[in-house]
Amino acid sequence: MATTATNIPQQGVFLEKDIDTNDMVVNIGPQHPSTHGVLRLITTLDGEIVKNIEPVIGYLHRSKEKMAESRSLYQYQPTIDRVEYLSSFFDHYAFVSTVEAIAELEVPKRVQYIRMITMELNRITSHLLWFGTFLLDLGASSPMFYAFREREKILKLFEDLTGARMMYNYYRFGGVIADMPEGWLDKVRKVVDEFPDRLDEYEAIVTKNPIFLDRTIGIGIMSAEMALANGVTGPSLRASGIKLDLRKTNPYCSYDEVDFDVPVGNTGDCYDRYRVRFQEMRESLKIIRQAIDKIPGGDTAELNKRRAAGDETANEMDLQIYGKKINLITYKPPKGEGSTIVESPRGFLGCYIITDGSPKAYRIKWRGASFSNLSVLAPLMKGLLFPDLMAIFGSIDVILPEVDR
Predict the structure, then answer these.
(1) How far apart are CA 321 and CA 78, in angstroms?
(2) Whole-angstrom Cα distance, residue 52 to residue 88?
(3) Digit-coded pLDDT (tens) for 279-309
(4) pTM of the model
(5) Which end of the chain is more exposed for a tag (fewer CB within 10 A), N or C?
(6) Is residue 5 assigned to a domain?
């Protein structure tokens, strides 16, 4: 005896029977390699179409703001590398610059250039990791190895400078912990000079790859209005056509003394977000080259020769490493409040501090770019195909420790 299916005509008539068309709710994460940390995405699907996404955060909350109230500023500083661990120099710059503003500490020009060089190198390492993981999310494994090859060279520079590859704790109020090692700037210049050829290699592999183009062009279009409404900043905002970069609009740390461009996109899709970050790495190289040429005192080896020869101007340069001589362990900034916003690899990274005259901060508040950037994922994905989710989420470049803090 033959079995009759629900939707197969029998003698020219369809059987009338209810078909279950309920939405499917899929749980992605919080343990999932493509969510780049402990992010949970509750996704409502109608077949392959995404009807809604609800990001669930808080799995990585470490009380970064509250713990500052029970530690001195000096004790708290080593912990802020973890606020946004892929670009720790930006964490420290936001923190020390806020204290410097409250205490009216003058930052010597040499220190400003050291900070600028390290932050731009850190921007490149962050974008390289994003590039490798983004392509890995799309199914391409080779770019991950290529990106980490160059990233390793810059991490070695950081290790030579700070003794650490990831958690640097190098900046200090009014200065840095120590001057650059002899010959360090020459090593930086060598890496910077080699890097454009490596970027050309990446682009030859990826930028015109037909599979990559199909997965990114016209996918996840973020309009300028959507970006602004959700507080999106950084490369994701500039890819939507808004030319907003704090290094240009609100210059800090001698960025007004170097020449560079601000890349912007046209349509705000995944491809534009990719192109903007790639061009940003090239612009960072331009900034670093100029900073090496303009840094007061030049390479540390030259300063040491001048010191040995009894050059008083070289001895004065020592004060430009540490700024005002203060006891960091017992340092008590004056009572007041201040804030600093820095253009991190993911956008606006802000630190707000209230001091009460004691070694501890009365209140510290962090503004992470990833927190706001993540909020655009739900409206961005609505009505799109489920396979596009990881391409769109990866193109936004969210770091979960910065979300949870």
Answers:
(1) 19
(2) 34
(3) 999 999 999 999 999 998 888 887 778 777 7
(4) 0.89
(5) N
(6) no
